[in-house]
Amino acid sequence: MADKKVALVTGAGQGIGKSIAERLSKDGFSVALVGRHLDKVQAVADELNQAGGDAFAVKADVANRDDVFAAVKATKDHFGDFNVIVNNAGVAPSSPIEDVTPEDLEFTFKINVGGVIWGTQAAVQAFKELGHGGKVINGSSQAGQEGNPNLTVYGSTKFAIRGITQTTSKELAERGITVNAYCPGIVKTPMMEDIAKSVAKEAGKPESWGMDQFAKNISMKRLSEPSDVSNLVSFLASSDSNYITGQSILVDGGMVYR
User: Fold this and answer.
1) Residue 158 labelled as part of a binding site
2) CA 20/CA 54 separation, integer angstroms
3) 137 carries a ligand binding annotation
4) Does the active-site annotation cover 243?
5) How far is C-alpha 178 from the chain's CA centre?
6) Percent of the chain clearing pLDDT 70 (strictly above)
7) Rounded CA gap, 72 and 165, in Å?
8) Is 125 left (phi over 0), alpha (psi -120 to 50) or beta?
9) CA angle, 228 then 231 then 234, to 5°
């Protein structure tokens, strides 16, 4: 390919982020994998490189603006270009409204919302320096399209990401930058297993009951595989989505209908 495609994925050490990094690598992207734990993202990068990909691991905490800017700069310097950022990193605390603490709120917003804002800022700066447009792809959620019990804090961050996606898409369109979000449903990831555990514990039931509670409300009657989500991100990162911006697209097997 004449033009090198470079993507950065945050939270790429496990779950959805890992699946996105694998898919983009398969799609021909050089991929930077960003995570708080270098060993986790390094392991994924090593796998991708062994499979013939071009991957690079970077340690960064998305809650820290300087970390995010440094990660984008390192990616741009390493690969010589920068085209797509996937602001995927997130945490998903679960608790009834009465139990929400100031610490929960601050921690979750700093990562989920802060990470998207800093990632967008850093990507825009890189696109500007390189003299071309690019793509910003944000991780929202089915819980950012409809409120779910016990997810006041998490859901509010994901609703916020939809708002940020709309707002920034309007600001950045004339610079050739599109901004979209993917809204997964219930994905079989380590993070989801933790949520199912805590829901089951709250109800005094076994963990499998927790997972079943989620699957029964999905039209397709199955939980999502991480690849279901990375298929959508692959489309959003490709030129096929060039005329789509400001959208938060559900990939939830039929939970929420808009």
Assistant:
1) yes
2) 14
3) no
4) no
5) 16
6) 99
7) 19
8) alpha
9) 155
Range with the lowest mean pLDDT among 9-13, 64-68, 179-183, 215-219?
215-219
Mean pLDDT confidence for 147-156: 95
Tokens encoding 159 = 């609703």
Element (H, E) at 217: none
Q: Tell me the pLDDT tens digit for each residue of 77-136.
A: 999 999 999 999 999 998 999 999 999 999 999 999 999 999 999 999 999 999 999 999
Q: What is the Cα–Cα distance from 29 to 47, expressed in whole angstroms? A: 15
Domains of the chain: residue spans and CATH: 6-185+225-251 (3.40.50.720)
Among residues 154, 182, 243, 257, which one is catalytic? Answer: 154
Whether residue 187 is annotated as binding a ligand: the answer is yes
Distances (CA, A) of 25 to 22, 31, 46, 157: 5, 6, 12, 28
Cβ-in-10-Å burial (0-12, 13-18, 19+) of 228 comes to: buried
Contact 45/78 with Cβ under 8 angstroms?
no
142 appears as a binding residue in the annotation: no
Contacts of 4 (CB under 8 A, 6+ apart): 30, 79, 80, 81
* Residue 14 marked ligand-binding: yes
Query: What is the C-alpha to C-alpha distance for residues 238 and 232, in angstroms, rounded to an integer?
Result: 10
With 0.85 as the threshold, say if the pTM is over it: yes
20: amino acid identity, one letter: I
Spatial contact of 53 and 228, defined as CB atoms under 8 Å apart: no
